[in-house]
Amino acid sequence: MLRNALSLWLGAAGAFTAPLSIPVSAGVAHAGNATTPNTTAPPATVPNAGRLALLIGNGDYPVPHDLPPIAKNVMDLGEALAFRGFDVTQAMNLDESSLQATVTEFVKRVAAAPGDTVTLFYYAGHGLQVDSNNLLLGSGSNPTAPRKDLIARSLVLQQKLLAALPPRPQALNITVIDACRTDLRNALGDGEGLNQVEAPLGSLVCFSTGAGRPAVSPASADQNTFYTAALVRLLREAAGQVTFNDLFQLVKTEVQHTMLNHPLAAIRQLAQNPFIADNTRVQVPLSWGGSNDQGKAEQPLPPAEQAAWETIQNTDWPVDLLRLCNAFLATYPDSAQAQTVGLLLAGAKEALRILRSKEVKLFKTSFVIPPPVSQASSEQLPHSQRTELMRAARGDKDAAARIARLHRALETEQGLLRYVGWLQYASGLGNGIASYELALYYREAAQPLLAAQAEARARQLGYSPPRALGHERK
């Protein structure tokens, strides 16, 4: 259907850019239906145990659901990650049993690694949602099979990976899913693709497209998908001081720009809006101990520039952040931090747009850290709460939801008002889970009209609550 007209699949996210020509900078293992650990380190280094990656590519599905670009995705991404110091394991075309075993072994390996290890799990292939659970479909399965068969032949992302990985408060667990978030029948309408998720502590979860929306894939095995092409390029080319959090924001921006400006109208119509769930506590730069970032040593900023940069980092009100970022970029357009400041500027603009919405009752006086209910009940250190507040000012939908819950815990009238305001803000920023939580609050408060509006917003954002949820959040 769409493939015949445009020479592409609806499956994993796709690209029409020319394939990147990347030299091999480290040995990256490749396997058919099993995984083989990487045994060759980047040049002039020893294997870096501080960064572990598992890349799974499932492209072997019954015609017409096969995904030709997947092998290239995995190979190119493996090389780019090795360049950034990852010990990479690759696996291709895993059926459901091999998929389960490979992921279980990776979880065990992560659990045995030091607490400061950065980990990355990548899956490219077919994905779908059944009963609010995100499923990664085993190779050889038909994506259009009955749901009970799909459940039996899939890995449940939330349970088998996200919840199974140990928390990384002092490092980072990264999960990247470059897969369909809807099915072919719903490609041009509202689908029921992969569900929105909340990232566990110390985790960054990235989907190649928005919940309930399609992703597109080229029919050629010589091309990367849109999302992976952007990720590979930025891993290779971004400055060493760019953090992984900012990297995935840059990937999101590039995918949106590339697809919205594509010469094919159908690609513009199906432009992907990658989804990011962020619950990290530390910022990890791309640079690592065994690299010199292509010979470019990071230089300290001049004193005035450093002071301006630090002021931006410590600002927690979007209006002030917007002004400071504009001033920084006007004064230091060639700064090593210019790319990051540009991201902060975009986030501040979005935050301000939402705060000015009549549906959001959140004011400057609400941008405060609530006092902890008790030392035992506070799961976050004050420094972490301060960081959450600043991230929320930059348009972080997940940080905004966590700030809301801190206010709810106070169980005071002011705390409840701020809880509602912060959930409204998080919902406006695109957090469907926060919007559904707001709906549950309105139900408890006997405000059915507001509850219905908040629930409709949650579903519009692609969040499908569990069937057994009822009126209580899980």
Description:
By secondary structure, the chain is of the alpha/beta class. The protein folds into three domains: 2-279, Rossmann fold; 303-355, no CATH class; 364-469, Serine Threonine Protein Phosphatase 5, Tetratricopeptide repeat, CATH 1.25.40. Helices cover 40% and strands 12% of the residues. The protein has a seven-stranded mixed beta sheet with strand order 2-4-3-5-9-10-12, sandwiched between helices. It comes from Limnobacter thiooxidans.
Could you provide a short overview of the structure?
Residues 51-278 form the Peptidase C14 caspase domain. This protein has 474 residues and is an alpha/beta fold.
Radius of gyration, whole Å:
22 Å
Domains (count): 3
Q: From the 3D coordinates, which CATH architecture of the largest domain would you assign?
A: 3-Layer(aba) Sandwich
Which CATH class of the largest domain is shown? Answer: Alpha Beta
Sheet-strand content, in percent, reads: 5-15%
CATH structural fold name of the largest domain: Rossmann fold
What global shape is seen? Answer: globular
Mean pLDDT: 83
The structural class is alpha/beta
Tell me roughly what share of residues is in helical segments. Answer: 40-55%
Lateral strand order in the biggest sheet: 2-4-3-5-9-10-12
The residue ranges in which pLDDT falls below 50 over 5 or more consecutive positions are 1-49, 181-191, 374-381, 470-474
Question: How many helix segments?
Answer: 16
Give the beta-strand count.
12
Distance between the termini: 40 Å
Tell me the series of helices and strands, N- to C-terminal: HEEEHEHEEEHEHEEEHHHEHHHHHHHH
Q: What profile does the largest beta sheet have?
A: 7 strands, mixed
